[in-house]
Amino acid sequence: MANKEKASSSISSHEDPSNPLFLHHSDHPGVILVSQPLTEDNYNTWSRAMIMALSAKNKIGFIDGSIKHPGDASAAESQHWNRCNDMVKSWLLNSISKEISLSVIYCKLASEIWADLKERLSQVNGPYIFQVEKEIHNLVQDTMSIATYYTKLKALWDELDALCSIPTCSCGSMKAVIQYQQSHKTMKFLMGLNESYSATRGQILLMDPLPNVNKSYSLVLQDERQRAVSSNQTIAPEAAALAAKMNSRERKEYKDVEKRKDGKRERPKCDHCGWVGHTVDKCYHIHGFPPDHRNRKGNSKPSANQTSSLAVDCKE
């Protein structure tokens, strides 16, 4: 009876979400907790992302060794622990590159995998810090937007802070150190901007006290957006004028084509001589042929009938 109650109590505790041995129905070995797999060059960022993911699932104790195996105290408890340990191992292997995962796949405990990776890949050495510092120094805006430039710069700063963290202190001197660090970041951000932002940069440098890098980024971003709005307003009238010009040209070409089509369908015909190509008011048989016309024969004056016809017209 006592064993039955103990087993029932164990099962109910494992259904409690606050229990580290609890597994949600959506948890399975194929889950990928971080977007970027572990390689030989990104252990620091990968480990931070993995710690956050495992902490959210209340499984951080399986990699730092704080959740020990229950031993032979309870078969059910041991089964639940093994199940969670294998689940965390699967999550770790899913987030490691193929080359590295082959070297830790035979580890029995998730904490062994974590310790092995940390020992091999988390070597914080001078060359790596030098590389990050050099990337920060050489980074400039160039063709990037303000948001992209700042995002890349901040990622490098965060990585450097993780490698060389400042010791915590309760005295007032730490505030001055942090303020100096912020001023240094603001200067670097402003130095990397394109010369087109020199006016905004000058205004920020004249502020006392100097704003932190986040405030400086906000001011420069507002300038960029204002320029985009002004640029759109300037281009709009030119685009409208070009469109109107093109429409006018298209209408003229359309009318010319229609005229040519109309001329092919019905050419003017003279009511006097019956020839096609002119009207009565331009008929040479009435008004006479030009001196150099090929049909001119001696006299270019109109005939008697033509003269009388003109006379009648004049009287009328």
Automatic annotation (TrEMBL):
<dbReference type="InterPro" id="IPR005162">
    <property type="entry name" value="Retrotrans_gag_dom"/>
</dbReference>
<dbReference type="Pfam" id="PF14244">
    <property type="entry name" value="Retrotran_gag_3"/>
</dbReference>
<protein>
    <recommendedName>
        <fullName>Retrotransposon Copia-like N-terminal domain-containing protein</fullName>
    </recommendedName>
</protein>
<dbReference type="InterPro" id="IPR029472">
    <property type="entry name" value="Copia-like_N"/>
</dbReference>
<feature type="region of interest" description="Disordered">
    <location>
        <begin position="293"/>
        <end position="316"/>
    </location>
</feature>
<feature type="domain" description="Retrotransposon gag">
    <location>
        <begin position="86"/>
        <end position="194"/>
    </location>
</feature>
<dbReference type="Pfam" id="PF03732">
    <property type="entry name" value="Retrotrans_gag"/>
</dbReference>
<feature type="compositionally biased region" description="Polar residues">
    <location>
        <begin position="300"/>
        <end position="310"/>
    </location>
</feature>
<feature type="region of interest" description="Disordered">
    <location>
        <begin position="248"/>
        <end position="268"/>
    </location>
</feature>
<feature type="domain" description="Retrotransposon Copia-like N-terminal">
    <location>
        <begin position="24"/>
        <end position="70"/>
    </location>
</feature>
